[in-house]
TrEMBL record:
<feature type="binding site">
    <location>
        <position position="526"/>
    </location>
    <ligand>
        <name>Fe cation</name>
    </ligand>
</feature>
<dbReference type="GO" id="GO:0046872">
    <property type="term" value="F:metal ion binding"/>
</dbReference>
<keyword id="KW-0378">Hydrolase</keyword>
<keyword id="KW-0844">Vision</keyword>
<comment type="similarity">
    <text>Belongs to the carotenoid oxygenase family.</text>
</comment>
<feature type="binding site">
    <location>
        <position position="312"/>
    </location>
    <ligand>
        <name>Fe cation</name>
    </ligand>
</feature>
<dbReference type="GO" id="GO:0005886">
    <property type="term" value="C:plasma membrane"/>
</dbReference>
<keyword id="KW-0408">Iron</keyword>
<keyword id="KW-0449">Lipoprotein</keyword>
<keyword id="KW-0479">Metal-binding</keyword>
<dbReference type="GO" id="GO:1901827">
    <property type="term" value="P:zeaxanthin biosynthetic process"/>
</dbReference>
<feature type="binding site">
    <location>
        <position position="179"/>
    </location>
    <ligand>
        <name>Fe cation</name>
    </ligand>
</feature>
<dbReference type="GO" id="GO:0052885">
    <property type="term" value="F:all-trans-retinyl-ester hydrolase, 11-cis retinol forming activity"/>
</dbReference>
<dbReference type="GO" id="GO:0050251">
    <property type="term" value="F:retinol isomerase activity"/>
</dbReference>
<dbReference type="InterPro" id="IPR004294">
    <property type="entry name" value="Carotenoid_Oase"/>
</dbReference>
<keyword id="KW-0413">Isomerase</keyword>
<protein>
    <recommendedName>
        <fullName>Retinoid isomerohydrolase</fullName>
        <ecNumber>3.1.1.64</ecNumber>
        <ecNumber>5.3.3.22</ecNumber>
    </recommendedName>
</protein>
Length: 532
């Protein structure tokens, strides 16, 4: 699977502007949709990659498009709508890019006179509300999100935008990740940067309680449960996700840093965007932090390991005084997002491969964190679990040096966008994870991985570009992998239909059915299955 090539460049279709739909369209089903599969697959991604003649430059800049595949009695429909964010509505109104996005600077309004333009240089940055990354439930509501303080409340049936919500109004946080943890009772946890005591930077874990009998919006009851310290007072690390078990919260602090002086300075003076504010700390490596969830108490244990980028936690669980932390890492301190400019991703295949040559190498890893430390074990490996090769060595300065067990590794082939049977096995011991295989950053296969034996199952077809696989459990499931895996596949070269929803048997990743549509579907990042 490490030799698949894409000379035809069909992956470029993932980064092409499309139109929204006024009403859902019927998808053409081949195979047989399980009758128990009832509900909606909701997913987010960019759908507008330029405004008039002005292009967006980065993968995370295109305007947010919300997608839905509906399953009912073996029939499938597809719908999509652009979210009516400030960024989108103002771009449509003024026919130009108005709000600066992750990798695209929005120039000041050319119609303003020189006097008002001068003053706009000293206005703070207008933070983007382009919520293109994920969609998740809070109580009875549904929100699309990116990584800023703005989330977008949406109607999961019609895909209409209800309103913009500013998290800063509810809780002390400057932004929140697109990867909240949602517990079985509906409690939502998330993490974000904030200004802590005496101006020092910190990371806050916030909790949004489940919907109560009073039916009040749970957002009004959100609170900070614990604060993690920052390795550098003025430079918070980029945080994309975190780990959660029934008793612990795990935060991995990586060497990809946000330079606050740049971030808070007037971007318009030098045409800056979010990407311009990142830098790497070449010496710190990675710091891991653990807190007790219920007490909100920080464990005073300093875990250290060598440098990597981290976007996605696979799963985390407790075993006999240890925390098992499974991660999709990228080895090194250079920011992986440097390789996700649209110009890179739209290049011809030979160039795509050449670009990726010098990027950090991907690797799925298991780290094991001992929770009970005995000083008499200094110099020794504290990991006594029988099933892992991961180590944790207590050093004389009382830090604990971690070495991982590798659970998946292939040259420039990432196991990424990991999903699990989250409802039943999130935060608990588990066996299987489902991922999107990136080949030099191009998604070209779906992969199931047994994290214990490292056995893999792969779905792959020529010139076919899938999305993050979403696991949906069978209603009467007895085993962890009883169910199906859903993914949106773009297939520009293969046959008449440009895209389809793929349904695989989660046991062996064999095809159960596909539902084809007569239109292209651009890249989507994350989403979830909402049961009917």
């Amino acid at each position: 699977h490490f030799r698949v090539e894409h000379p035809a460049g069909g992956y470029k279709k993932l980064f092409e502007t499309v139109e929204e739909l006024s009403s859902p369209v019927t998808a053409h089903v081949t195979g047989w949709i399980p009758t128990w599969l009832r509900g909606s697959l909701l997913r987010c991604g960019p759908g507008l990659f330029e405004v008039g003649a002005e292009p967006f430059y980065h993968l995370f800049d295109g305007q947010a498009l919300l997608h839905k595949f509906d399953f009912k009695e073996g029939h499938v429909t597809y719908h999509r709508r652009f979210m009516r964010t400030d960024a989108y509505v103002r771009a449509m109104t003024e026919k130009r890019i108005v709000i600066t996005e992750f990798g695209t600077y929005a120039y000041p309004d050319p119609c303003k006179n020189i006097f008002s333009r001068f003053f706009s240089y000293f206005k703070g940055v207008e933070v983007t509300d382009n919520t293109l990354v994920n969609v998740y439930p809070v109580g009875e509501d549904y929100y699309a999100c990116t990584e800023t303080n703005f989330i977008t409340k949406i109607n999961p049936d019609t895909l209409e935008t209800i309103k913009q919500v500013d998290l800063c109004k509810y809780v002390s946080i400057n932004g929140a990740t697109a990867h909240p943890h949602i517990e079985s009772d509906g409690t939502v946890y998330n993490i974000g940067n904030c200004f802590g005591k005496n101006f020092a930077i910190a990371y806050n874990i916030i909790r949004i309680p489940p919907l109560q009998a009073d039916k009040e919006d749970p957002m009004n009851k959100s609170e900070v449960v614990v604060q993690f310290p920052c390795s550098d007072r003025f430079k918070p690390s980029y945080v994309h996700s975190f780990g959660l078990t029934s008793n612990y919260i795990v935060f991995v602090e990586t060497p990809v840093k946000i330079n606050l002086l740049k971030f808070l300075s007037s971007w318009s003076l030098w045409g800056a965007n979010y990407m311009d504010c990142f830098e790497s700390n070449e010496t710190m490596g990675v710091w891991l932090h653990v807190a007790e969830k219920k007490k909100g108490r920080l464990l005073n244990i300093k875990y250290r390991t060598s440098a990597f980028n981290l976007f996605h936690h696979i799963n985390t669980y407790e075993d006999n005084g240890f925390l098992i932390v499974d991660l999709c890492t990228w080895k090194g301190f250079e920011f992986v997002y440097n390789y996700l400019y649209l110009a890179n991703l739209r290049a011809n295949w030979d160039e795509v491969k050449q670009q990726a040559e010098k990027a950090p190498q991907p690797e799925a890893r298991r780290y094991v964190l001992p929770l009970n430390i005995d000083k008499s074990d200094t110099g020794k490996n504290l990991v006594t679990l029988p099933y892992t090769t991961a180590t944790a060595t207590l050093r004389s300065d009382e830090t604990i040096w971690l070495e991982p067990e590798v659970i998946f590794s292939g040259p420039r082939h990432a196991f990424e966008f990991p999903q699990i049977n989250y409802r039943k096995y999130g935060g608990k011991p588990y066996m299987y994870t489902y991922g999107l295989g990136l080949n030099h950053f191009i998604p070209d296969r779906l992969c199931k991985l047994n994290v214990k034996t490292k056995e893999t199952w792969v779905w792959q077809e020529p010139d076919s570009y899938p999305s993050e696989p979403i696991f949906v459990s069978h209603p009467d499931a007895l085993e962890e992998d009883d169910g199906v895996v859903l993914s949106i596949v773009v297939s520009p070269g293969a046959g008449p239909k440009p895209a389809y929803l793929l349904i695989l048997n989660a046991k062996d990743m064999s095809e159960v059915a596909r539902a084809e549509v007569e239109m292209n579907i651009p890249v989507t990042f994350h989403g979830f299955f909402k049961r009917a």
